[in-house]
Write a structure and sequence with these properties.
about 260 residues, TIM Barrel, eight-stranded mixed β-barrel, alpha/beta
């Protein structure tokens, strides 16, 4: 439960961790790993989701959950998101088309009045085509100002950026979100995938979600796929993409580049 460094961070003062993070951002020490995504139908690589990691000199690797918690307390969410996006885009620059890059977006990102044009500018600066970029949002992200978020998403969509609704099925699913936003993808949480191979009710829920997505012309991505039985059910139910340890865990930039190029 504490695999991302939270147990080690407990012994360090919050103020010290915040100062450490500010220093790490200044020195560009926040790393990006890439979680590959594959097509369910033929197993081909489709792209990857960017994940932030902090290699703390005293605490070791600190995962995204703790990293973002520290950043929120230190009022560094926007600089952190900027750093992650810039690093991820630079790393994905050499991937062959049509491989896609997915970036997670926070409520603090949307609070910035220039969020959409700034993200597009970073993509342009990295030489990464916006129509190969996906941003992942959660319904929690949209709570502060739904209309402003929707406007930013429309600006991005006009340049070809795809929008995925992440963690779908883990909480209250507001159908206003599905109706009002320029969504392209529903991303199913790993909790919806875990038991689909042996629980009829879970499989029925999965099938219903895929049917709804199809009715709305949305693609479906499944997270947390760990075995062939799960993948077989996803294929039978028409899920488009999957990610998980069945094929690959998070990779560093060099390993992802080799995978993207088809190298062994």
């Amino acid at each position: 439960a504490w695999a991302d460094g939270r147990h080690r961070a407990r012994g360090r003062s919050v103020a010290r961790l915040e100062a450490d993070l500010i220093g790490a951002l200044h020195r560009q020490e926040i790393a990006v790993l890439y979680q590959p995504q594959f097509r369910v139908g033929d197993g081909m690589l489709a792209g990857a989701e960017a994940l932030a990691r902090w290699e703390h000199p005293g605490l070791g690797r600190i995962g995204a959950e703790t990293l973002f918690a520290v950043a929120e307390r230190a009022d560094q969410m926007a600089p952190l998101s900027h750093a992650i996006a810039s690093t991820a885009l630079a790393g994905a620059h050499a991937w062959p088309a049509p491989l896609r890059l997915s970036l997670n977006v926070t409520a603090e990102d949307f609070a910035l009045p220039d969020f959409a044009p700034a993200l597009l500018a970073r993509a342009d600066a990295a030489g990464f085509a916006p129509d190969r970029l996906t941003i992942e949002i959660t319904e929690q992200t949209l709570i502060a100002d739904f209309d402003a978020c929707a406007a930013a998403l429309r600006t991005l969509a006009a340049r070809g950026v795809a929008v995925a609704l992440d963690d779908f099925g883990t909480g209250f699913s507001n159908f206003r979100t599905l109706k009002a936003l320029p969504l392209d993808t529903l991303k199913l949480d790993r909790s919806l995938v875990r038991d689909v191979a042996h629980d009829d009710r879970d499989r029925a829920i999965l099938a219903a979600m895929v049917a709804m997505a199809r009715a709305l012309s949305l693609s479906v991505v499944a997270e947390g796929v760990e075995n062939d039985a799960q993948l077989a059910v996803l294929a039978q139910e028409g899920v488009d993409l999957f990610q998980g340890f069945l094929r690959a865990g998070p990779l560093d930039g060099a390993a992802m580049a080799r995978l993207a190029s088809g190298a062994p």
